[in-house]
Amino acid sequence: MDIFRLIQDIKTHLKLSFDEVDRWFEKNKETLNFQPSNGGWTVQQILEHIYLTNFYLLILIEKGKKKAMRNYLNLDLNIEIENYSFDKEKFDKVGEYGAFEWIRPEHMEPKGELSLDEMRSVISQQYHQCLNYLDLMRNGEGLLCKTTMTVNELGKINVSEYIYFLSLHAQRHITQMKNNELNK
After folding, report:
1. What residues contact 132, with CB distance under 8 A and at least 6 apart?
2. Where do the domains of the chain lie?
3. pLDDT 10s per residue in the chain (184 long)?
4. From CA 132, how far away is CA 153, in angstroms rounded?
5. Paired residues of 135 in beta bridges
6. Which helix (H) or strand (E) holds 107?
7. Does the 3-183 domain belong in CATH 2.60.40?
8. Which burial class, exposed, middle or buried, applies to 31 when counting CB atoms under 10 A from its CB (0-12, 13-18, 19+)?
């Protein structure tokens, strides 16, 4: 896949995912606080989990961005672009709720520490942070740093792919929130 097309596709996916996440903040209290009978999270807890996951992934993305920009001085970006391939099918499974078992770290579990307004504001900032990274690496520089992602055995993924992962993670939980709403 063309890296420039991928970057544009990631931006589009981010917009759609984050816009949809944002709409969940406008739901009524009954929807936000409905506790599924299976003991799953409420919509409010899911929103907090999205915020927390974004927070920790953005730390890794920031480090990767810095390393990629340093590597730009010593590596041939054109060769990286020429040899780049993207396994969309494997990535897209990340966005499918229930597609595989996913054990999240404890620090990404909701604790009820932020209000809905605070979470909404921070998630909006996180969206703009992702766009900023993609703009800074618009020529494909994100290819110049790879970090291991164990989820769904993705292996070594580049910085742009990490941002796509973040967006897919939100998409996965949008489905979970919709399930909550349907079952309340």
Report:
1. none
2. 3-183
3. 689 999 999 999 999 999 999 999 999 999 999 999 988 999 999 999 999 999 999 999 999 999 999 999 999 999 999 999 999 999 999 998 888 777 778 889 999 999 999 999 999 999 999 999 999 999 999 999 999 998 988 999 999 999 999 999 999 999 999 999 998 8
4. 27
5. none
6. none
7. no
8. middle
